[in-house]
Amino acid sequence: MKRKKYIGVFLAAVLILCSCTGCWGSKELTDMVQIIGTGLDNAENGQTKLTVQAGSASTSKSDNKKKSAESQIILYQKTGNGIFDMVRDITHESNRRLFIGHNQCIVFGKEDAQKGVKNQLDFFLRDSEARMDVNILVSDSTAEEILSTQTEDYDMPAVGIKQLLEMQQANAESVSTDLMDFSLALASETTCPVASMIHLSKSNGKPRFVVSGTAVFKKDKLVGTLDEEKTRGYLWAMNKMKNGVVNIQSHSQPVCLEILGSRAAIKPVLQANHHLTVHFPISVKLGIREIKNQDGISYDELSKQLEQDVSHLIQKKISDCFHETQLYGTDIYGVGKLVEEKYPQDWDNIKDKWDTLYRNSIPEVSVEVKVKDSGEISKTYG
Questions:
Q1: Secondary structure element (H or E) that encloses residue 52, with its range
Q2: Cross-referenced Gene3D superfamilies, in alphabetical order (predicted)?
Q3: Number of structural domains, the chain?
Q4: Which of 13, 214, 305, 342 has the fewest Cβ atoms nearer than 10 Å?
């Protein structure tokens, strides 16, 4: 009996020890170089130029202090036909394996995006270490220029780009698209992908990143861009304007309002003759945050006027953006998918001519605006 008891205790101890051994197949971060950002540009003979911004995971042993961000940055560049092959080729220059799990962004140069990005994204979708929440951007020049430039604000350009995109949510003047969103749009029969536009501003001789506007794709090729105003129209329509600022002239005075909330929907209506109308019902709540001069104007009078003015402003932004996408023939809203879901029996007859149907569709925008508060005072004093 005692022998069986000792055997049982021994087996239990072995099992506990085995469960505490950690990951047998794990790799130490100090044995790897972390890819922070990747850039893709068009090269000669139909090839692709890959720019990899990497950061060392090691630290300086002197005084137990970390190396500066600048000394940790490593830039690799390769030209070839396949991303995987080029990444592997970098091992000739590094004694540590590249780890893509911390990649912050994929930047396409403008010429490369115009050529088509589907084949280049295949590597990022297949690799088991790659993340699907990595941001997709298009440079108005080259990806190499973006990833090789250090600014005063950011020592690691790719990390700075990631933080800049997060801050853009407060301004609502640029889209934020990750690899998951982009690839889902690519797989759609009708929905066209969008991505953030990025460029370098060199005012006062000091470079800084600027993220504004939207890159519009037809299938996997860049076909056009939307400026900040049209981008805002897209964000309003797509129910992505949860915060931000609206500046408007009312009673000949500049007024600044804060977006307190917004609800939007897209409702296509397909008639018997296959005439398509796309309804955009929008509901917006605003708060007054700054008025230059309110003399002689009551709060009620001002609020009503602001509600009308902002309603017209949002209607124009949404309509202008929609008409621009019609010129490109790019359904970036997913209207085709909504039509297929709502009218499944008609879809088989119209899907082959969806481009023409979308180009000829009529947008109808209705915006309800409510000014909910005036801040801490109801009128301007002084």
A1: strand 48-56
A2: Nutrient germinant receptor protein C, domain 3 (3.30.300.210)
A3: 2
A4: 13
In a domain, residue 81? The reply is yes
Model confidence at 231, in pLDDT bands (50, 70, 90)?
A: very high
Mean local confidence (pLDDT), 357-361: 97
CATH code (residue 248): 3.30.300.210
Residue 59 has pLDDT above 60, yes or no: no
Neighbours of 289 (CB within 10 A): 14
Confidence (pLDDT) at 2: 54
Angle at 214 between CA 283 and CA 185, to 5 degrees: 85
Distance, CA of 305 to CA of 246 (rounded, Å): 14
| Residue at which a domain ends, from 193, 226, 259 | 226
3 within a domain of the structure (yes/no) = no
Among 162-176, 314-328, 346-360, the minimum mean pLDDT is found in 162-176
3-state class (DSSP) for residue 296:
coil
Measuring CA to CA, which residue among 255, 247, 258, 245 is closest to residue 294? 255
DSSP 220: T
As a whole number, mean pLDDT of residues 339-366 equals 95
Does residue 216 share a domain with residue 132? yes
Write down the pLDDT at residue 204. Answer: 75
129 and 276 in a single domain? The answer is no
How much helix, strand and coil, in percent to the nearest 5, is found in the chain?
40, 30, 30
Q: Over range 25-37, report the average pLDDT.
A: 69
Tell me, yes or no, whether 233 and 373 share the same domain.
Answer: yes
- The H or E element spanning position 255 is strand 253-264
> What is the C-alpha to C-alpha distance for residues 262 and 269, in angstroms, rounded to an integer?
23
Domain carrying residue 148: 31-59+68-226
Any domain includes 300: yes
- Could you count the other beta carbons within 10 Å of the beta carbon of residue 282? 21
Query: How far is Cα 268 from Cα 272, in angstroms, rounded to an integer?
Result: 13
What pLDDT was estimated at residue 13?
56
CA torsion, points 134, 137, 139, 144, in degrees to nearest 10? 10
**Has residue 102 been placed in a domain?**
yes
- pLDDT for 14: 53
Buried b (16+ CB within 10 A) or exposed e, 246-267: bebebbeeebebbbeebebebe
